[in-house]
Write a structure and sequence with these properties.
130 residues, mainly alpha, globular
Length: 130
């Protein structure tokens, strides 16, 4: 069974976009930061509301994530690995969904709960901001 078998159609689109971001950055792994970029690409009212409540804007977060991730080396693709942190985020999102399909909002909440990662730092409001 796929790690992502409990994803809603919207969450699957987020995943496809995250995989493309991974390739765009020449990364061989799919991580939480790629997932964050996928979430920012998916039109979703719950995500818009969530970010707005924190005084965060999609474009600014995406630009910060892309800058922070950098670009990997050109290489021959043999597949993409899923990082352990991303697996933990997906497991937490499944828990938040409480048996329903995992949606983008569950993924965003799980990303925000993930401690110590680049994505959660990017989502943290700066001092003096909301």
């Amino acid at each position: 069974m796929s790690v992502f078998s409990s994803f809603s159609p919207a969450a699957r689109r987020v995943l496809r976009t995250a995989e493309q971001e991974c390739r765009n950055h020449n990364h061989y792994y799919l991580g939480v930061e790629h997932l964050l970029l996928g979430l920012l690409h998916e039109p979703d009212e719950a995500i818009d509301r969530h970010l707005s409540e924190r005084g965060l804007e999609r474009a600014e977060i995406a630009a910060a994530a892309r800058r922070a991730m950098g670009t990997g080396e050109d290489r021959t693709w043999e597949g993409i690995l899923i990082t352990p942190r991303l697996r933990r985020v997906v497991a937490r999102a499944e828990s938040l969904a409480q048996g329903d399909l995992v949606g983008p909002e569950h993924l965003l909440l799980a990303v925000e709960e993930e401690a110590g990662g680049l994505a959660v730092q990017i989502l943290r409001p700066r001092p003096g901001e909301s």
